[in-house]
Amino acid sequence: MSYLQSREAEVTELVVGTKKGLFLLEGEPSGGGSGTFAIAHRSFAGQPVDYALRDPRSGRLFAAVTSPFYGPKLFFTDGDPGVESSWQQADGVALPEGGDQALERIWVIAPGEADATLYMGADPGVLFESHDGGASWEINAGLWNQPSRRDWHPGGGGLCLHSITTWPGNPERLAVAISAAGIWLTEDGGRTWRRGNRGLTPRYLPEADIDPDTSALCVHHVERSRSRPERMFMQFHGGVYRSDDAGESWEQIGAGLPSDFGFPLKVDPADPESAYVIPLVADMDRVMPEGRVRVYETRDGGASWSPRGEGLPATHAYLTVLRQAFTSRGEGEALELYFGATSGDVFASGDAGASWCTAATRLPPVFSVSAT
Amino acid sequence: MAVVCVRAPLRALAGGRGEHDLEGVTVVELLRAFEAANPDAAGWILDERGRIRRHINVFVNGERGAEGTSVGSGDRVDVIPAITGG
Lengths: 372, 86
Known about the structure:
The complex is a heterodimer of chains A (372) and B (86). Chain A is mainly beta. In chain A, 3% of the residues lie in helices and 40% in strands. Chain A has 2 helices and 28 strands. In chain B, a hairpin with a 2-residue loop joins β3 (56-60) and β4. Helix content of chain B is 17%, strand content 26%. Chain B has a single domain (2-81), classed as Ubiquitin-like (UB roll) (Roll). Chain B has 86 residues and is α+β, with helices and mostly antiparallel strands. At the A-B interface, loops of A face loops of B.
């Protein structure tokens, strides 16, 4: 089934990046069992696909592939992803030549607010932008030339720019997150940037040493509410936070979770009070608490949290979900949620997390999941 | 002139040819010449710093070489992925 056919059939397409290739799944979530998902394609066999998504505006499919031999590359196709020759390599996905750094990995791709604009985050803390639908890219000079860059510290996964949040309807406003260089905000389309780290409390540093402008701040993931853009949610390296001033300052909202350590989170586009996290035990034990797979939901902006695990493995399930492996489609009561684990399992909910089914098992370790 | 020898997938990015006669007196000069002649392969062997990527091995007449290794006329430079993975 082609992308357009899947749209006509109103099935969901899951684009799954794994350690050993790109998988496209098609189907519908349902309570219990396996739903109707099936693997439609596998591309880039044997290669790590760190991130992949389909731009819903153009239908163009992107795959960020980091060959252990040939380095990180971005490929895209407008055709049949099962036909190798349909994939093209995007231009400009590299650092300036002759410097002392090389591009290490592509972490995220995000459609922009302006037509044909996309953003891409990568290691070492670099933001790319494209204004031709993703065929060619250039480095955002404002962030690349930040004077403080020389003091930025990489997290365990590298100096990864992993979160890009646009402002609905306003292409000038953007927030990005870098592990471990914190949150960066722009209101002029990326020409100038400033930090937005007030209130973040890194427990891995001595309290006396915390400075929001210089401390290493290991942000794991950030999302913005589309219905109230000044509201943002953050999963930190120990701590779940909310901002109500567009990322300028943050307050902790993790009380009530079994652990406030984790990587991904999602926000219901229709409801700024509703967000979802997937707690892991701690940074020294990055698996599901109690061996139970559960997503935690808040419906009150983080004042309280409730487990959502009906249909998910409940015993001896020590899964790890990486930061780009949790996604959503739709909104409100029909919000679909999907996540993949390094175990190779992919889970799906068609009712905002109330019930879950298994969309795939025994895939390679899942790095990313996106849905259209 | 030396000959640069590449295998898949670089061969597909270089017009389907596995052997390329190129000018250069060091390995990095030859590899830059290879990328200039085959722009689809730019960035696949050398990174932005001009270094040979970590998991690519280069051999000059069968001996392990590096960026600055001298290359003479008629020499053979093999570009081979290292044994790596997981």
